[in-house]
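[09:14] KT: can someone run the structure on this one? pasting the chain below
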Amino acid sequence: MNTIKRGAELKEKILLGIKKTHEEVIEFKKQKNTPIVVMRGDKIVKIKPWERDGIQP
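[09:31] RB: done, structure tokens below
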């Protein structure tokens, strides 16, 4: 059980780190006035972070 608890704690820390990094990347892209390039399905899409504040990870 102790291993399961440590695994859950590690997962939570990783997810918090990913969320923080995501927010920092969006803020950086807004400051530099550059689009975020992502892949949606089989298409490459450019998102303008200064126009969409509701971007989800």
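[09:33] KT: thanks! Strands lie at 36-40, 43-47.
[09:34] RB: yep, looked fine to me
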